[in-house]
Amino acid sequence: MVVFDMETTGLFVEKGHRIIEIGAVAVNGDTMGEEFQGLIYTRKPISKAAQKVHGITAKMLAGQPEAIEVLSSFRQFIGTSTLVAHNAAFDVGFLQWECMRVGFFLNNRHRCTLKMSRRLFPGLPDYKLETVARHLGIQVDVKRRHRALDDARLAAQVWVEMRKR
Q: Torsion angle, CA of 46/14/75/115, rounded to 10 degrees?
């Protein structure tokens, strides 16, 4: 399994928004292993709403590799692993589109911790990653940045704990 998260320039792939960061953690049973992190340079502006969430600026992306290079490395990192994400429909949708855009085909199976948490824990006030983590007794740093690798690490912990239930 590889638990991953990404940050984007906006919420809508159909409006041309792009991936600007990918973070991932390999998980084997209850053990978290190798990690992947990459910022992606894109010429697309980052929406104010997206920037408010993740804090990534155009200046931070200047000089970073373009999508084809980061996605190539990511594809090598994940191999044929099942992908896990919190709100996998969003992340996998963006990832598939971005891969197709650069000429790759991505057909890894995927699982969704958001769907799983809704099924396992009906009645939570919301199903944000942090809420589910706290419900599972996972320590969440209140100063935590909403960045791809940070979220992938937290989602990996959530995945491991939910699998135990």
A: 100
